[in-house]
Structure formats: structure tokens, C-alpha cells
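Dear U.,

For the methods section draft, I wanted the exact inputs and outputs in one place so we can describe them consistently. I've listed the two proteins in the order they'll appear in the manuscript figures. Please don't edit the C-alpha cell lines directly; just add comments below if something needs changing.

First protein:
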Amino acid sequence: MGANFTILCPIDFSECALNALEYAAKIGEKYKAKLIVFHVLNRQDYQNLFPLDLDGIFQKEFVEKKLKSLQEAVLKESLPKGLKSCEVVIFEGSIVQTTISYSQKINANLIVVGTEGINEFRKQVFGSRSCKMVLQTDRDILVVPRKAFFKRPRKLVYASDYVDEDKSAIKKVVAFAKFFDSEIDIVHISSRSRLIDKALHKTMVEEIKPAISYKFVNYVLKAFRDDVALGIENYLQLAKGDILVTVSKKKDFFDQLFTKNLSRKMSYFITKPLWVIKSF
């Protein structure tokens, strides 16, 4: 991962954002990372809450005080456990685009962002900030739901669609898993039980297995008659997965998972984090 691992955590002081900060700090301890707690001043949002403060004078003072308090708490808890540093940064502008631009400027390795859960991904509110960030960023991103509180991940579930990037992505997942001795299930969900899927799965295992040195890896092929996303949800529940991992290089697969099916029936993601790997 390199010696200068940087984690960017956008904060709006909501419960789900604070959960994301906890994940960011705990992951930062393992990577000996630089953590940046990032807040974008959004004047319109603030004025809706405090219409009398037209110049935003008290807004900035309030934000600075809150950020300093969070920074002190993170430093006290995580610095002795390996976190390299924790900084706070404030910008003004569009939350999504400002965060994405800043992540590129600092060459962030990972963005950790909070979400209210499945409602963030519903088609009718597709403009939600965390969903937009997932789709638009070129950085790895971990989406932490409001009801997810950090615990050592016992199992990571990697959803594979047999793309070329799987091998590089799984190496990243293995590096992460080693910090926690986590089990990894590399899973392909097929809508039908077909011989071609069995052949592709065998090929994937033969290619990936020699490339990783980690004993807690399982290779799973499952047939699910409904759509792929529901099949992954079903597997997550049965396997008691703690984090879902996927890549976003294959756009049709990514869209199928996160811009179509999540809007209908899936509920498991309300409580489980989603790690989308975007860089290799």
C-alpha cells in the first residue's frame, strides 16, 4: 500500500458520518495512515437551519469547534495505536465535487463516507451525496451505513464478475484482511446454473490462487434465480459477511448492483459497509 497511505473522511457531524470516522480511524491505525477529517461548508444547508446568520459567521466558528473536538478525540484514541496523524480541513463549495477534487489533490488512497443506508441509493433520490460520490470518484471508497459500528471484520465478501481487475483488487483485499485475520469469500453469483460459469470460476481460481498468499480464502460459485444483487444479499446474510467488496471497472455489473437493484428490495446494506475498489 505504500508508506504514505492517506484516508479522507468527509464529515457533516451526522451519526452516519461519525460512524464513518470511527472506521477511518481504525483502518488508519492498521495502515499507519494520515487521516484527514474533511468538512465542506455548504451555505445553503446551513442557512436552512440558521436563517438569521446570513453571513455564515457563526457557521464557521461552530464547524471549527466541532472539528477540533473530533480531531482531539481521534488523536487521543488512535495515535498510540498506529495512526500517523489526523488533520482537519475546511472548504466551501459543492460537497461531492469539492470532496472528489480534494481527494485527487492529496492523492488519497481511500475515502470513507457515511450513508443513511439503502435510502441513499433509491432511484428517486439518486442525487444523494454518498451515492454520487461512489459513482463519480476515482478513489477507493468505503461507504459506512448509519447502523454500522466498527468491529473487527470477521469476514469480507468479494463480489466477482470475472473481470481482469479481480486479481489486483483481491490482493488489496488480502492486505486489508491480514490486519484483522479476516476470512475472505470470493463469490460469483450467477442467475442460472450454467457450465460456462463453472468453467469461468475454475479459471478464476486457477489464476488468483497462486497470486495470493493467504490461507483464509474461500472461492464460491452460487446460482440465484432472481437478480445478482439479491443473490449477493442472500449470500451475505447466510455467510454473515461484515463488509461487501467489489470493483467498479465493469460498468454494467456495477450499475446492476448499485443503481438498479438496490432501489428495489435490498435491505442488508443498511447495516453493512460497502468497499468499492476503483484504483489498482
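Second protein (the one for the lower panel):
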Amino acid sequence: MIVLDPETVITLMLVALRVFSFIFMVPVFGTFFIPGFVRVYLSLGIALSLFLFAEVETVKTTSLPEIVSLALHEFLFGFVAGFFLRLIFDAVFVAGEIIAVHTGLGFLTMFLPQQPQATVMAGFSTLLASTLFLTLGGAEAVFLGLLRSLERVPPGSFDLYSLDGEVFLEFFYESFSMGVKIALPVLIAALLTNVILAVVNRFIPQINVFMVGLPLQIAVGLIVFAVSIPVIGLILASYMREHILDFLRFVSSA
């Protein structure tokens, strides 16, 4: 039974702020497809369930400056944890952007003014990664990680300066490298297509390569991407499993 004294209410608010900043960083829960009020209610629901299941130490303070300081620490912890998990989806986002640029699909953004500043392939790749993430049990892993974080890192005890910046840089480089690897089949196909078009333009100058090139690049890029999706799914699933385990270790020892 929960006694709603001021310390318990403050602790619950700190937990909700941790979850709120985390939810808005991860594309699965904080994507633009989900309305803002839904994300707020989702954060409150997850925070309440975590508070009920975890053995959370109540904050022993009622001073406003201390509460503001604790709230800032909780927001930073949720932001850092969400950024750590977001690197998975940033890899796929980078792959989608690279594919769109080298196949000509980036021009579709002109016909979608309501779309955020991202290409259609980047949005599709992010949705594909989100589906794979949920299939691998990522939502359950996130709940378990947040549950452990409340027990190992109680509200207000997070120290941002204790983090190792080189670890985040290493994961950032790995995320960018994974994005390039995912887009590599389409990159090779686009390069070969451009070489063939250059040879055709050299030997048959009567053909208008500029009129044929863009539709051909789009068709070749989409075909190669569709054929390579199973392989990409296997590589991405292996990368996600390792990164989810790293995320669980991070939130348990931050």
C-alpha cells in the first residue's frame, strides 16, 4: 500500500521525469507518429508501474532547490539512457538517408511538406527497425532496464560526470559504421549503375542518360534493397541484441 505523503509524491514525480525524458529520446516511443499527449500518458503509466514494482527509496527532502536539482539529475539520466538506446535506430536512420541520397529518393521530400526533415527511406528504415526491436522483446528489456535502474541508481543519485565519454564515442562510431554497412549493397548497386550509364553515354551519345538515369537508379536501388532486406534483418537483429544487453548493463551500473 502506498502512502501519499509529500516524500512519496516527490519520488513518484522524479521517476516520472526519468521515464518521460527517456521516452522522448527513443524513436519507438517518441516518434512523430505518436501524438504528444499519448507519450505523456505512456510515461506516467510506465512510471507508476515502475514505482509499484521496484523497491524505490523515497527522497528525504522537501526543499525546493534540492527538488529542482534532483529533477535535473533525473532528466539527465533519462536523456542519457535514451540516447544510448537511440544509437540503434540512428544506425538504421543513417542507412536510410544514404540509400535515399544515392538512389534519388531524397526528392520525395518535396511532395511531403508535412513530413519532418527526413527522407522517406529514413522513415521507412526507422519503422522497420522499430518493428524488429519490438519483435526481439525490446519493450520488455526497456521496462526491465528502467526497473533495475531505479534499484541500482535511486532517484537523485545519478552523477553525469561519472560517465566515460569514450564509451559513448565508441558506440556512436559503431552506430555510424553499422549504418554504412546496411546501406552498402545499395551503394554498390548505385555505383555500378552510374558506371554503366557513363559507359552507355560514352558509346551511344544519342541516348539521353539524364532522363533515363534517375528512374533507373530508383528502380535498381529499390530492387536491391528489397532483395537484401532478409540479410539486413539478420545483421540488424544481431546488432540490436548486443546493444540491448549493453543498455541493460549501462542502466544497471550508471
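Candidate sentences for the figure legend, describing the second protein: Residues 47 and 234 are 33 Å apart (CA to CA). The mean pLDDT is 79.

Thanks,
Y.
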